[in-house]
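Lecture notes, structural biology module. Today: joint structure prediction for complexes of two components.
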Amino acid sequence: MSRVSSPGASLFSWFLLAPGMLFLAAFLVVPAILLVVLSLHDVDGMLMVLPGYSIAQYLAVFTSSVYAHALGTTLWVAALTATLCVLLAYPAAWLLVNTRSRSWRTVLYVILISPLLTSVVIRTFAWIVLLAQNGLINDVLRHLGLIDAPLALLWNMKAVVVAYVQVMLPFAVLPLATSLGEIPAALPRASQSLGADARHTFLHVVLPLSIPGMMTGAIIVFALAAGSYVTPLLIGGRLQPLLPIAIYQQALQIANLPLAAALSLSLLAVTATIAGLMTYVQKRWERRVYGH
Amino acid sequence: MATDRDLVPASERLWRWFCMVAGGLVYLFLLLPVLVIFLSAFSPTAYPQFPPKMLSLRWFQAFFESRDWLKALQVSAWLLLIVTPLTALLGTTAAYALARLTFRGRAVVQALLLSPLIIPQVVLGIALLYVLTGVGLAGSLTGLAIGHILVALPYAVRTVSVSLASIDRKLETASMSLGASPAYTFTHVTLPLIKPGIVAGAVFAAVTSFGEVSVSLFLTAPGTVTMPVRIFTYIDQTFDPVVNAVSAIFIVLAVVALVLIERTIGLTKAM
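The predicted structure, tokenised, for the full assembly:
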């Protein structure tokens, strides 16, 4: 590829890159480094940070059954959310790619993108209105005579997963739709003209080619679900054993910043490792099906 | 050419119908909260009833009569006005430089620019809280603005990159070969061409700032409570039906943003 090679143009581009880089250095890189340093300090009885270095916080994270349980639940909920999102994303992405009418496709895009433009706290609130004791679902069920007493739909992990799936579904649909849209129409047609039925064509042609898009969506949803605290806190309640909720409470309510730092870095390390492994598998798969 | 109907066996048509219905249901599921919010915003009771018996604007009235809610609206509006132009500026310059430079570590820089999208927001929040407390900015409007720019920057970088990828590089080369300086070429040739991407990025930045809650909760103080933070604390601690009306306002803003994005880079390219 040819690029503008004049030294003046290149210098100018570097000059333009500087403000963004300085901003990220000051407010992303430096805070991340300081967070690591902070996590390597112990606190005294008054939660004051002690000067000497110590791995006490990480010992507290990894030897406590509370945090081990919270980490396990966090990963399990994130994996469940990612799986459900990918499963639901498939028909949604299929419809998006196969809708021929331009205006209908715009409607589908509006439905997909509008959640990304609506605050997560608003979308979570809608689920509370739906699931509360005197909420809409209980109201409808009571009107239909299906229940006598309101069901306890809120304050449990199932409600958290349902809300999570709804909040994060667009992140799974959009990359999958890109992946499906890139499959040449000739491929499934060739498969069928060679005698394969729809099921066989889907399983052996379309599905393998769409796995990279599915994986991209799954990785994003997994990372987002593992790191959010607003939705689980409001829908599941403050007692749910989830690591992001524990971090929020340690940082803002108990004010044990070194422990909160160690918890968040552990969470970051674990989710980054899993996301990295998934990316590796995705790249291997891409090379296998696309041959590059 | 034969029509689909002739070529497609009955079993496959059934399968297509199944996919369509399943897909339609998923879109309904996505739309559900929006419908619920409108139902509750105009409901006369604190909890909406189904089917709605009558419409009421009492929660909107309560919102505009509440000094605290209006104060939160003011804080959010100030933040939006600070964050939007700064994010558009940082995002545009960074996206342009990345598109025009080749250097070792370019992929790292790109990943860094997009990383706030994927780093758990609880981690961003606590890291910023610690650093901004150290320099005395925690709880200030400046601190919140920094947090919002950090979260919104990836969107601006992405939309501007989309615009940059679609413009003809020869125009820039021609401008420079005719003697225009790189800076003049950037402001008079490139910027007008990538304006749609910049506007779309600014819209994303404005909406992100106005709705941001995860990082804001770490950086807020009693004097700088934004709308989403106020909503969060209200849902968390009590139940204020005014939230119904506030939510509807958020949805209307999202619709405005959608129209703006569609008119600039187009919804299909937005994500």
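Point to remember: Chain A has a mean pLDDT of 88.
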